[in-house]
Amino acid sequence: MDDRVTDTAAVGVVPEDSVRHVRTVIIGSGFAGLGAAIRLSKDGREDFLVLERDSDVGGTWRDNTYPGAACDVPSHLYSYSFALNPEWSRSFSAQPEIQHYIRRVARQYNVLGKHVFDCDVTEARWNRGVSRWELTTSRGHFSADTVICAFGALAEPSLPSIPGIEVFDGEIFHSAQWNHDADLTGTRVAVIGTGASAIQIVPAIVDQVQHLDVYQRTAPWLLPRFDRAYTRIERWAFHHVPGVQRLLRAAIYGGREVQVVGLAKAPVFMKPLEWLARMKIRTEIKDPALREKVTPNFRIGCKRMLISNDYYAALDRDDVELVTDPIAEIREHAVVTRDGTVRSVDAIVIATGFQVTDSPMFEVIFGRDGRSLAQVFGEAGMQAYKGATVANFPNMFFLVGPNTGLGHTSMVYMIESQINYVADAIAALEQNGIRTVEVRKEVQDDYNRDLQEKLSNSVWMTGGCASWYLDRHGNNTTLWPDFTFKFRRQTQRFDIAAYEVSADAGTPVG
């Protein structure tokens, strides 16, 4: 059954020539934005809108529909704590099942009527005169006292800059923009990238295509995917035995949290996982030359650890070639590598990830002094306070902001922690008659110095790799460097003492 959001009541049409004002605007409706909308509604705050650029909720799980798309976090941990899902069919869920869950939760909590779909935010600018945010969108103009940015880190595809890519005459698309009308049967396909998406795509299409070239810049570490279908008895228990799901969720959470010791505190403890990954290469790949190609030259955990049971087997075939020589150019019907080899190809799948530290959304948000978020981040790197607020951007809150990412467990846990913080902040504004809040620059700086100090001994900084976790300054502005329960403790309450506040709409902050 097609359960896409199509009900017209949820579209929220706004006249083009008017400005609609609400107390809070949420930008984006993935796990973060939808969670924020539900929390505001549960708190009795109904004067808000969710501006979503697409025609459905779901975010990255709506967009990434490529063959084999699935989650690498166990199903029971990858859900809202207030909306556990007894319907999970497997221990690791596929994309359609996750998207179905998100849609169901949106309907269950009756927040679709607060959405304005097909609404692309093209500018958000702080108006100091009236102390509010003014937003220009593809659906008209909005203003808001507070803005919650939930546009996500995995929203904007990162496209490689390869000479000649624009002249390619066959099918070419990014993994997050999969062209389902393209028939790859019996074709020669090139997959550029060997990250989380690529290792799912390659096994999913290898039996369909005539020949597959996989272009690898850096070999990833792979671990086994302990995936299986839940039995009928287990699914019955999830439905009918109180506490079973929460107990399983807690056990999964605890097991995952143990990895933090090796990732962030003492990388030597990652050795057992590296041994397991090396054994996986040894047992699943027969060709010694291919084994050497897929063996990373950095410590496990430095880049995102991936899980798969069929990627190596897909590479170790006569009709598949793993290419490690850099791409020099793309021609109308071929990919040419630096060594001069020309490989004919009918279709190219770009699986090069997302713009995490340089999101295009940063360029359209303008703060108190007129500078964009991109300019502010460009000067000192992507920094925030508790991943939620940025100096120079009053009354703006971020979900999945800087240094809230994870390399070991569910981002939904971090999202809910941040939602707690933001919801408490909005309550504090209302209860205390506060018009504006802006994090003190010195507080933000101290917080980030402490973060980078904690990160300095982590495997992400000492493991010998260059990853998308790092910005152009060499700082890890992506990951949280400690146990996630410590982050939840930090974000339990809004600490107003860390902020400059103003009760008068005419008084500038700072």
TrEMBL record:
Origin: domain of life: Bacteria
A Pfam family of this chain: Pyr_redox_3
Coiled-coil residues: none
Keywords, comma-separated and alphabetical: Monooxygenase, Oxidoreductase
A GO molecular-function annotation: monooxygenase activity
Protein name per UniProt: 4-hydroxyacetophenone monooxygenase
Source species: Rhodococcus oxybenzonivorans
